[in-house]
Write a structure and sequence with these properties.
329 residues, alpha/beta, Spore Coat Polysaccharide Biosynthesis Protein SpsA, Chain A, 2 domains
């Protein structure tokens, strides 16, 4: 029998913001309208400004003055989407459940109510899985390639077509909070902690305003965090590739010896073949060193144990007061 959750529980929304001044007001209107359909729940809306260059922070503080359910965290600089979400999760530690979603309206607020309903029926993690998406061909192709590779390399079962739009029960949130690595891939972390996880299918809407905060460079780094953070297969592939090259080199040596001894008239003089082979082997070695260096670099960053983020401003509480003391975590 599934456990029922309800009765005035507190649900916190973690909402990372980066240069979303043009659309954050519209998003908040839709979010408040959806929250109004569940008067039995207590809501908190935690907006995390990730060092926006526009007037997003000013818009968020205006929302805070108009709605005391709004909490505003302003990071001291741009730390990246995953760090902004982490800051929000840390601030939502006392909630019974937390919903992570972006504010560009590609993640429809109405779907969050379905996540809550599934949680109330007993699920510990409810992730919104994209049934359709209105992105460009490059975005769709790169996303397909990323999930295809991740599915084959990752040690955890990370669902396809799933972003950070999800709900987590407080038990899961407590476990996720224990993961403090710097090169963060939250959807992999959530998948790795286990618990009862269910999907809610939805059709992803187009971006309401502004442009994506994930250019190609950040997409590549994010993909690397997902693969290197949850798989050691690339290291094992280096060993297999080295063995394969060694076997091919041995076969080539045997062939060259046989031609020289038995059919010397067919031996071709020159160093072109050796030159090409040397460059090929050198390139493969550099790739291998790069893979090893990527893992070593991650170890170096973790050993430094620096704070994940710094908070420059917090506006929270029924009195609407703000603190400008910088805090790190």
């Amino acid at each position: 029998m599934s456990e029922s959750r309800g009765g005035g529980r507190r649900v916190a929304y973690v909402l990372p913001v980066y240069d979303e001044a043009a659309g954050v007001d519209r998003f908040h209107q839709e979010l408040v309208a959806c929250a109004g359909q569940r008067p039995d729940l207590a809501f908190e809306f935690i907006y995390v400004d990730d060092g926006s260059r526009d007037d997003s922070l000013a818009r968020l503080l205006e929302l805070r003055r108009a709605d005391d359910r709004v909490t505003v965290l302003a990071l001291s600089r741009n730390f990246g989407h995953q760090m902004a979400v982490t800051a929000g999760l840390d601030a939502a530690a006392e909630a019974d459940a937390v919903v992570i979603m972006d504010v560009d309206l590609q993640d429809p607020p109405r779907v969050s109510l379905e996540l809550i309903e599934t949680w109330e029926r007993g699920a510990d993690v409810v992730y919104a899985q994209r049934r359709t998406r209105r992105d460009g061909w490059f975005k769709r192709a790169s996303a397909f390639g990323f999930y295809w590779v991740l599915e084959r390399l990752a040690s955890s079962d990370i669902p396809r077509n799933v972003g950070d739009f999800r709900l987590m029960d407080r038990r899961v949130l407590a476990e996720v909070a224990r993961f403090r690595e710097h090169n963060r891939f939250l959807r992999g972390i959530v998948a790795s902690v286990g618990f009862r996880q269910e999907a809610v299918l939805f059709d992803r809407d187009p971006r309401f305003a502004g442009k994506s905060g994930y250019p190609l460079r950040r997409m590549v780094k994010f993909a690397a965090d997902g693969i290197l953070g949850f798989s050691t297969i690339p290291l094992r592939m280096i060993t297999r590739l080295g063995l394969a090259i060694s076997v091919l080199s041995l076969l080539g040596a045997v062939y060259a010896f046989a031609v020289k001894v038995f059919t010397p008239e067919n031996a071709v003089p020159g160093w072109a073949f050796l030159g090409v082979g040397m460059f090929l082997l050198g390139g493969i070695q550099l790739v291998m060193m790069g893979i090893i260096g990527s893992y070593l670099g991650r170890v170096y960053v973790e050993v430094q144990n620096r704070p994940l983020y710094s908070v420059a401003l917090v506006a929270r509480g029924a009195d609407g007061t703000s603190s400008t003391d910088v805090a790190s975590s």
